[in-house]
Design brief:
346 residues, mainly alpha, P1 Nuclease, 2 domains, 13 helices, 4 strands, binds zinc ion
């Protein structure tokens, strides 16, 4: 089984991070007495601690979506998907932990987190701020495409208009079209597939579709501008405070969820939540926006709200229902895309 290995790896990263926190606290404590080089070290540590926007369900959320979808795919779609994913440059990395599990299933599930993983991958670059990196075979370029993960529709009309940016809605349609088109190359389709798997999940995360003006009149960056205290953390027992966005990202489960535990969790969600009626990606985003407006923010005007048991339970149920819906809908979309479509070349 690979589960223990995966857990210990990720838990190791958490321990390492908490050591950085401890070291930085010590550095802050001692800094007044130190030399300029220590100041530089302190500045680096503080830079590492600045929270960066997360902008995705965590890995558990995306893997659960993919696991639910895979269990509902027909053999023709599975076979086409597997041939495309085998041509992706990161296929070997995805199946490294497969163990006795079906490598086709594992590759599909791991591909769901690839668009988030490339944020930290130095083969890729951020357009406008970094030099372009060498393009891998079959890829259009190595841009990280951070604006594909969201579409920021304001939650209320205000005198201060905010231009809508983010391409989540457009890319869901464009990627499905690339996968279905007989004119697309296998390289284009193996690039598009992990993105489509991932973005189906993002479209169901309420805070990927909205922004709100906060009490100070600033746009809240998808809930990243609000810190909340969550006394009900199930796997972050030492880190009860987070942004509201990260709170929602983490609701589906711990990011190291894989293997048999992932399969059991996805089957439990599918048993609990029936498939939603058929719908197009535009509706997934509209639903997320409605949830963001009605249920994603804690009530009250506290600057750093402490979440109540009632808010936590409702948010958790919403997140699980959205993850299940994303899984069902991803399966439907992929069936449609691959039904009678072009099969990959040899
Ligand atoms: Zn994302």
């Amino acid at each position: 089984m690979c589960e223990g290995k995966a857990a210990s790896h990720d838990e190791g990263m958490l321990i390492e991070f908490s050591m950085v926190l401890t070291r930085s606290a010590d550095a802050v404590h001692n800094a007044r007495m130190r030399s300029p080089s220590h100041w530089r070290s302190l500045a680096l540590l503080l830079f590492l601690l600045v929270p960066l926007p997360v902008l995705a369900w965590n890995a558990a959320g995306h893997r659960l979506v993919a696991s639910i979808a895979w269990d509902r795919l027909d053999e023709h779609s599975r076979s086409t998907i597997s041939q495309l994913l085998r041509q992706h440059p990161d296929y070997a990395r995805w199946i490294r932990r497969a163990g006795d599990d079906d490598p086709r299933r594992v590759a599909f599930i791991e591909a769901s987190t690839w668009p988030d993983n490339i944020r930290k991958d130095n083969r890729f670059y951020n357009a406008g701020v970094e030099e372009a990196t060498p393009t891998l075979p079959g890829f259009p370029d190595m841009e990280r495409r951070r604006n594909w993960h969201y579409v920021n529709r304001p939650l209320e009309k205000t005198p201060r208009d905010h231009a809508v940016s983010g391409l989540l809605d457009q890319q869901l349609v464009a990627l499905a079209r690339t996968l279905a088109s007989p004119g697309s190359t296998d390289g284009e389709r193996s690039y598009a597939l992990p993105w489509l798997i991932h973005l189906a999940g993002d479209a169901h995360q309420p805070l990927h579709t909205s922004i709100r003006l906060d009490a100070d009149g600033k746009w809240d960056r998808f809930g990243d501008g609000m810190t909340v205290i969550n006394p009900f953390n199930s796997f972050k027992s030492r880190q009860a405070s987070s942004t509201l966005h990260a709170f929602w990202d983490d609701l589906p489960g711990p990011p190291w969820l894989r293997g048999d535990r992932l399969r059991s969790a996805s089957q439990a969600l599918a048993a609990l939540y029936p498939p939603p009626p058929p719908s197009a990606p535009g509706q997934w985003i509209d639903e997320s926006w409605q949830i963001a407006r009605n249920d994603a923010y804690p009530p009250g005007t506290e600057h750093v709200p402490v979440l109540t048991a009632e808010f936590f339970a409702k948010a958790k149920a919403i997140a699980e229902r959205r993850v299940a819906a994303a899984g069902y809908r991803l399966a439907d979309l992929l069936r449609e895309v691959f039904a009678g479509g072009k099969r990959p070349g040899p």
